[in-house]
Automatic annotation (TrEMBL), chain B:
It is a multi-pass membrane protein. InterPro entries: MetI-like, MetI-like_sf. It is found in: Cell inner membrane; Cell membrane. One of its GO terms (biological process) is transmembrane transport. The keyword Nuclease does not apply. The keyword Lipoprotein does not apply. The chain crosses the membrane at residues 7-29, 54-77, 89-110, 130-148, 183-208, 228-250. This is Spermidine/putrescine ABC transporter permease. It comes from Pararhizobium antarcticum. Its main location: membrane. One of its GO terms (cellular component) is plasma membrane. Belongs to the binding-protein-dependent transport system permease family. Keywords: Cell inner membrane, Cell membrane, Membrane, Transmembrane, Transmembrane helix, Transport.
Length: 301, 260
């Protein structure tokens, strides 16, 4: 039906017959795309989702999902969620601080362009090389570790810091989380109109009051939405974690990686359930993001 | 007062980003005891495995980009021209690879296209390479589609098409000689981003057992000390170059448009 609407101005008056004849062929134009997406995105995902609810001989079951609720798998999910949440929250706060400093803090204007370009680079600099960079910085013989030890007498290892741990992974993830936050929140901060602040001041609001009662409620959906996006971003990250920790840290992506490689759980369908759990968690986070983003656009257009 | 806070926040952010970069650069230069040298780089660049895997990844990236252009430009064009009602659905589908982690997608590939299935792509080397390319195209889909669609928004697709048709152009001519040159900047930004993604991708290549650059880096990282840092510097340089090229083509296009 859509094609009628678009081609009406030129065609209705002169030759309505022709438009009607070409109508069914319009679908052919998106057919290659539809086939590609079905074969390499939808079907593989459906295979996992359906497999999560099947026994090896193909009948329906909830045992695989129930199998996730064992202590070791639950622990893997829990530490994954903790790392993703910690890196998302810290990334939001620090990224907001940096972005606010540039947009509202009265810094010279020329900083803005390079900062955004650099954020684009840094948010894409994830994976294996990022792990190497952090090993060279905060690893046992990293530049910062050595500097703190020889110059300031602070031994990070004695203080209980280890790069191959919860905080180590969180710190590493922050390297791509902060720039992603900067990239997303800077346009939102730009959208805060000068008039709102002036109106608030005329009505007698102090700086903190303006932030608490005007700016923050407007920004809140974008902040929360970005938090969800950063969470999903960290939750799906595999390469950085594997390159950094090998398999010493038991997080869900590493567990799934090992399961695909060599069936460490001893049950292929438990692997499906593990992957299904990942989709559910990132799916919820992304739905939140899309929904909150739509809300925030009401004010920040 | 406000400005001091602002400088403080910015300095903190900059330190966070530059320390690891300084760390890896510094480390990569320290292979020779007691002095700075490019030994680690020389060792890496001379490694036949490096040349092999890097070449493989570059080829994969180029094929992925070509495939992406052939798939996405006609689709995005067709949707804009003939089926605008379909746009929200297509856009939703193209965002799915951001929701479904790459490791889950490749897990599905392995189960769906193994040697005992109806389409045994993983049975042969060419088949696996093809599957990996489709996987990369899926990963790049959100960026590529968005870039092309934004590019199409800035031109009048309907008028251009009708003008070309009345001069006797067929669909292939319209796409290759009218639409593609007009959205070339957008396509190029998508292409560079795809390149940056594919070149260091680890998960898919590792699980499909292909000799790509990502798994090579991981392997080297597990066994060597200084070479990984040199690799990280090289990888960062590539990412930086890709982003720089995107900026460059965008700026270039603005100039040509302003002159008109």
């Amino acid at each position: 039906m859509q094609s009628d609407k678009t081609s009406v101005p030129a065609a209705t008056v002169t030759m309505p017959v022709r438009t009607r004849r070409t109508l069914p062929l319009n679908w052919l134009g998106v057919l290659p795309f539809a086939i590609f997406v079905t074969l390499f995105l939808i079907m593989p995902t459906m295979k996992i989702v359906v497999g999560a609810f099947q026994t090896p001989d193909g009948s329906l079951t909830l045992d695989n999902i129930r199998g996730l609720f064992t202590p070791s798998i639950m622990a893997a999910y829990w530490i994954s969620i903790k790392i993703s949440l910690a890196s998302a929250i810290l990334g939001c706060i620090i990224g907001f601080g940096v972005s606010a400093a540039v947009v509202l803090g009265g810094l010279p204007q020329w900083i803005r362009g390079p900062l955004l370009t650099f954020s684009g680079v840094a948010s894409n600099f994830a994976g294996v090389p990022l792990a190497f960079a952090f090993l060279a910085t905060l690893g046992p013989v990293g530049i910062l570790t050595v500097f703190l030890k020889t110059q300031l007498g602070l031994d990070l290892r004695l203080l209980g810091f280890n790069l191959l741990s919860f905080w180590g992974l969180t710190l590493t993830y922050l390297f791509f989380q902060i720039p992603l936050m900067v990239l997303i929140i800077t346009p939102a901060l730009d959208g805060l109109k000068r008039e709102w602040r002036e109106a608030a001041e005329i009505l007698g609001a102090s700086g903190p009051q303006y932030w608490r009662m005007v700016a923050f409620p407007i920004l809140f959906p974008s902040l929360l939405g970005t938090l969800a996006l950063l969470f999903a971003n960290a939750f799906g990250a595999v390469a950085t974690a594997i390159a950094l920790t090998g398999s010493s840290l038991n997080i869900v992506p590493i567990l799934l990686f090992a399961q695909i490689r060599g069936d460490v759980l001893g049950d292929p369908h438990l692997g499906y359930a593990l992957a299904f759990g990942m989709i559910v968690i990132t799916g919820i986070a992304n739905t939140l993001y899309i929904w909150l983003r739509a809300r925030s656009e009401r004010w920040l257009k | 007062m406000k400005r001091i806070w602002a400088w403080g926040a910015l300095t903190f952010g900059l330190l966070y980003f530059f320390l690891p970069l300084i760390g890896m650069t510094n480390f990569s230069l320290k292979m020779r005891r007691g002095e700075y040298s490019f030994d680690a780089y020389a060792r890496v660049l001379a490694d036949p495995k490096f040349q092999e895997t890097f070449g493989f990844s570059v080829m994969m990236a180029l094929f992925t980009i070509l495939f992406g252009i052939f798939l996405i430009v006609p689709t995005a064009y067709w949707v804009r021209l003939k089926m605008p009602g379909l746009r929200p659905y297509i856009e939703f589908v193209t965002l799915l690879p951001l929701v479904i982690p790459a490791i889950v997608i490749v897990f599905g590939y392995i189960r769906l296209y193994n040697t005992s299935s109806w389409l045994p792509l993983t049975g042969t080397t060419t088949g696996t390479n093809l599957l990996l390319m489709f996987g990369y195209a899926t990963l790049a889909l959100p960026y590529m589609y968005r870039a092309v669609d934004t590019g199409l928004r800035t031109i009048d697709v309907t008028t251009l098409t009708e003008a070309a048709q009345s001069l006797g152009a067929g669909w292939i001519t319209i796409l290759s000689r009218i639409i593609l040159p007009n959205v070339l900047v957008a396509v190029l930004s998508g292409a560079f981003l795809t390149f940056a993604i594919v070149i260091g991708e680890f998960t898919m290549a590792a699980l499909l057992n292909r000799p790509a650059f990502g798994p090579y880096m991981q392997l080297l990282g597990a066994n060597r000390a200084y070479e990984p840092a040199a690799l990280a510097v090289i990888a960062f340089g590539i990412t930086w170059a890709c982003m720089g090229l995107i900026q460059l083509v965008t700026r270039f296009s603005k100039h040509t448009r302003a002159q008109r």
